[in-house]
Amino acid sequence: MIKPAMLKKGDKIAIVSLSSGMLGETFCAHEVRLGTMRMREFGLEPVFMENSLKGMNYIRNHPEKRAADLKAAFLDSSISGIICAIGGDDTYRTIPYLMEDEEFISAVKNDPKFFLGFSDTTVNHLMFHKLGLRTFYGQAFICDLAELADDMLPYTKNAFSAFRQKDRFKRCLVY
């Protein structure tokens, strides 16, 4: 298995909407701000990919754009990791655009990235497993980093606190 480098302070993290486009809806604007603030508190710099904030209808109707965002994140050498916005029910439609794209496959194998997500993103985890990349099944941007409360969920905060204290995801997000 290909092990991506662990994240460190200052790393840029791509936020992708591979399934649901709710991150781009106005009712989620406060979560975008909150999640961005929390990521920065942990020393990470979120980078919202080109189509990630285009809303539910656009994301649903354009699996090729969702795939393009994931591919762009892998092709961008300044990006160290990728966190999914949320799960959903439609990620499988991105697979042909990715698994039939030699440039994407080569980027995954030659410039592996930290990948984190859950739910419908399981399809992507299986895709990456087939390509030999080790991934992390866990937190998503909206549900965990942007949790609407005074503080993050305890599990999420513990994982990201371990990162901040040691400059690495080790205690909770382990290989």
Summarize the structure.
This protein is 42% helix and 12% strand. The protein is of the alpha/beta class and 175 residues long.
Q: Mean pLDDT score, rounded?
A: 89
State the low-pLDDT regions, or none: 167-175
Strands of the largest sheet, in order across it? Answer: 2-1-3-4-5
- Cα end-to-end separation: 11 Å
Number of separate strands: 5
Number of helices: 8
Beta content:
5-15%
Features:
single chain; 175 residues; alpha/beta; five-stranded parallel sheet; 5 strands; 42% helix; disordered C terminus
Q: Could you describe the 3D structure shown?
A:
The chain is an alpha/beta fold. The protein is built from 8 helices and 5 strands; from the N terminus they run βαβααβααβαβαα. It has helices spanning 29-41, 56-61, 63-75, 95-99, 102-110, 122-131, 141-145, 154-166, and strands at 12-16, 45-48, 79-84, 114-117, 136-137. It has a 5-stranded parallel sheet, with helices on both faces. The chain is globular and about 45 Å long.
Write the topology of this structure:
Layout: E1 12-16, H1 29-41, E2 45-48, H2 56-61, H3 63-75, E3 79-84, H4 95-99, H5 102-110, E4 114-117, H6 122-131, E5 136-137, H7 141-145, H8 154-166
Parallel strand pairs: 1-2, 1-3, 3-4, 4-5
